[in-house]
């Protein structure tokens, strides 16, 4: 079953027939052909398999996870694929990442959502753990969903990442997080994450070493 679903997920990706000036990959999600411009010199400007796993979940679980008119923020949006799919499924999306990635992120989102979405998504800078209250004040920012794909890897900002999840998450916010398991140090982040959030594994793909989690603040999952 794992291999069949993984084949279906990876089958959503396609490549240009001809050599083009800018590197891009194509994807089929939410009834649309999505073209993503990439940059191979930066981790954040490449589409990683965890993003495909999350997009596939959003599309195939659109009844249980109805995004229509929901307020969604994606942290570490990278190329924007998850934000684009969430937008095409009816959400109002804020796609965030580091300042050096915003130009390509904005390009991909505009190219794939303009006049196609119920709500035009916005792109905003978010450096994990920095100026959170200034840029995303708790009193006025309420997100129904926080989405993250492959935000845990070999980087020195895991503390800041956890702080960002904590700041953005209200009692009724749902976190959807796709994670590729790599090194033990990074895997321990899951244990730290569970000190603040109840965690439920929604999907697991051993052949990709990727798990998809749903999380809410402690005590809220069962409620």
Automatic annotation (TrEMBL):
Protein name: MT21E methyltransferase
Species name: Cisticola juncidis
Superkingdom to which the source organism belongs: Eukaryota
Keyword set, alphabetical order: Methyltransferase, S-adenosyl-L-methionine, Transferase
One Pfam match: Methyltransf_16
Name of encoding gene: Mettl21e
GO MF term (any one): methyltransferase activity
Alphabetical GO biological process terms: methylation
CDD domains cross-referenced by the UniProt entry: AdoMet_MTases (cd02440)
Keyword Metal-binding belongs to the record: no
